[in-house]
Design goal:
The chain has helices spanning about 35-55, 65-85; strands at about 10-15, 20-25. By secondary structure, the protein is α+β, with helices and mostly antiparallel strands. It has one domain (about 10-85).
């Protein structure tokens, strides 16, 4: 059973779904004297700021072992060639 006062709620979809799905803001009373549009804009700004500051680190690309083996073989070949020609 629900009693008492009603609250205004603002639900904002996440700009980055990897951080959170949606943010729910519960406004106290009349919302502090701001218009509904201002309250929504501020909630969206807060959600964007939070998502930007809590982004997950991007996985770094790693070169496969075969590439490192080929690079090592090329370096050894170049050293051998220089020593042979000198």
């Amino acid at each position: 059973m629900v009693k008492g006062t009603s609250h205004r709620v603002i639900v904002v979809q996440s700009p980055d779904p990897q951080v959170f799905e949606q943010a729910i803001f519960i406004l106290h009373g009349d919302g502090g004297g701001v218009t509904s549009r201002q309250a929504v804009e501020q909630a969206e700004r807060i959600a964007r700021s939070y998502a930007r500051s809590h982004q997950l680190p991007r996985p770094r690309r790693r070169l496969p072992g075969a590439v490192w083996a080929l690079a090592g073989a090329a370096a050894i070949g170049a050293v051998w060639l220089l020593l042979t020609l000198l």
